[in-house]
C-alpha cells in the first residue's frame, strides 16, 4: 500500500461507541460540593502558559478546576479556557484505542487494534527504515508536554530531526531577533515587567483576546495604575479599547512606525544615554540609518498622523526605563518579521529597559537535574544542512521544511511522528505538500487525544489520555520567582488511552533501547528530581507548587550589571552577523503588498474562549463560543448586501471557497480589511460539535511570505473577496 488516502474518522457514535460522563445528560445529581470532594494538583495544558491548579472531584466524578493560590506564575487564578479544562477529559469524541490503516477490497480504513499490535507495527517499520536508509531518517513534529518523550525515543534510535510549528508559525522571528540583539530571547513566559511599567506599547499583540493568563493580569495591573497604553493595530481590539492611544496602522507598515519612533527618540534626545553608551554597539550607524525616517515620512506609509507618532514616541521616552514595546507572541506576518522584531528590540534598547523595573526583568528557573540515563549519541548527519540550509541562522527546526523533506523517493525523512499538533490547520498552504508527503513516507504515526485532520494521514493513530489523566515533566518555567509545579492524574485514563511517557518507553523496549527509559513509572523520575532540590513527590502531591529563592536580583544594578551573550558582549543595534550572511544589519522597511481591486486583506487572531483549533470541540468551551464571526466594516457589508447574522463565504485569488461564516458588521475594522478568529472550520469528520462550523482562515492562505532569516511563514498577505452564503 503505497498511496495513503485521507481517511475521515466518523463520530464515535457511528462506530457503536456510547458517549457518557460529564455534560452527557441532565440526570439528577446532588448539589455540587455536597458529596466527598477530593483535590489533585495539575498544570493546565489548554494552552502553553501552564498555570497550576487544583482538580476537584466529587465522589470520583469531575466537578471543577480552580487556580492554585500559591502559583505566582498565574496569580492563583485560571483563565476562561483553563477553567473549562474538564471538557478535554469529557469530550465524547476522544480517540479511544489504537488504530491501524488497512486496505480491504481497494478501500482504506482505520482498524481498531490492540496496543501490542500498534506498537509492534511501529517498531518493525522503524527498524526497516533504519536498515534501508539509516537510523537518522525519522522526524518529529510536536507541540505539547509529551513531545519530549518521543524526541528522546527518536534521538536514542539515531534520529534528531525535530521541529515545533510554534517556531516557524509563531515565535521564530522574535526569538532570533532578540538573540541577535541581546544574545538571548525574551523567553516563555515573556519576561515583560508590565505590572511595573509606566508606558506599554502593543504592536499587533492581542492581550486580552489571547488570554495568556499572567500577561493579562500584569497588563491589567498596569492599566489600574494609570500606565499609558499604546496599541498599534489596524483593528480596534480589546487592548485598543483600554488604550490612551490607539494607532490604526496600515497592515504591514509596522517597521515604518518603529523607524520613526527611533528617529524621534534619537533626534529629540529621548533615549537612555547611559545604557546606550555603556551597553550597546552600533549606535552611530543606527543614528545615520534613521535620519530620513521622520514622522512625516512614516505618515505616508502607515496612515498615522505625524503628531501622533511623535506623541507616542515622547510617551515611551518620558517614562523610560519603565517603558517597553511588547515583543508580541505570534510574530509571523509579512515576511520581514525578523527585521520587525529587530526594530522592536532596538527601540527597547534605546529606552534602556533591559533588566530594569517596568521593562524586561531577569527570569530565573530552578536548576533541576535530569534523571540519570544514557545520553543519546550524536546524529550521523547534519539534518539542518540537508533540510534548511537556506536559513542558516534558524536555530530550530522549520516545520514546513521538515514536511517538504518527506517528499520524493530520495527524501531525507522516511518516517514521521506527529505529536499533538494538527498540521493541516497549523501550517499554512501545506495541504498539497502534506498529501505528497503522506504518499512517500514509509511510516507516519499520529499521537493525539482527538480525531483531528492530521489523523487522516496516519498509518497508526495512538490515543493519548488528557492532561487530567497523566503525569508529565514538572513545570519549570523561567519567571520572576523560580518554581516547580506538578501535574498529577486526577482520574484514571478513559478507554484505552495512555500517556506519552508510556508509549515512548514501550516502543523503546521493542527497539532494544530500554536503557534510555530506565524507569517503570514516570513518578520515579519526578520523585528523584524533586529530591535533588529538597522536595519530594509526596510533598508536591500535597502543595502542587513549590517556590524557590532567587539566586540573582530581579533587575540589574550598578553592583550587578548586565552581560550579553552576543559576539561583542554588548547589545548589537547594528548586527554584523546579519551583514556577514547578506542580510540587512539594520531594519529596513519594505512596503507591503496590497489587495487588488475587489479584494480585502484577511486578518486573523485569537478568541478568549479557545486555544486555536485545539478546543473548539471542548463541550464546555464550545458553549461559550460555538463558531467564529467574520468582521466586516459597514461599507464592506453594504457593498455585498450583508448584515450582522448573515452568512458569507470568503474566496481567495486562486478560487478556494471557504465554509459559510457568520457576519458581524462593525466599525472596529477598516473597509479594506476583514477579521476572523483562527481555529474553526474543522473538516476531520469525527468532531461532532465543530466539524464544518465556522470559517477556516488557513485554507484561504495562498500568498505565504517566507521570512528569509528564520524561514517563518508570513500569513497576513492573504487577499479574499466575498459572496453571500
Topology of this protein?
Blueprint: E1 37-43, E2 52-58, E3 61-67, H1 80-83, H2 86-90, E4 99-104, E5 107-112, H3 115-133, E6 138-142, H4 147-157, E7 161-163, H5 165-182, E8 199-203, H6 213-224, E9 228-232, H7 238-241, E10 245-247, H8 254-267, H9 273-279, E11 280-281, H10 283-289, H11 295-302, H12 306-319, E12 323-325, H13 337-351, H14 383-387, H15 399-404, E13 415-419, H16 431-440, E14 443-448, E15 460-463, E16 483-485, H17 500-510, H18 522-532, H19 537-543, E17 545-547, E18 571-572, H20 576-580, E19 600-605, H21 619-624, E20 629-632, H22 634-639, E21 647-652, E22 661-665, E23 673-677, E24 705-706, E25 713-714, E26 719-724
Parallel strand pairs: 6-7, 6-13, 8-9, 8-12, 9-10, 11-18, 13-14, 14-15, 19-23, 20-22
Antiparallel strand pairs: 1-2, 2-3, 4-5, 4-15, 16-17, 19-26, 21-22, 21-26, 24-25
Q: Descriptors for this entry?
A:
Dimethylsulfoxide Reductase, domain 2, 22 helices, alpha/beta, 26 strands, six-stranded mixed β-sheet, 725 residues, Barwin-like endoglucanases
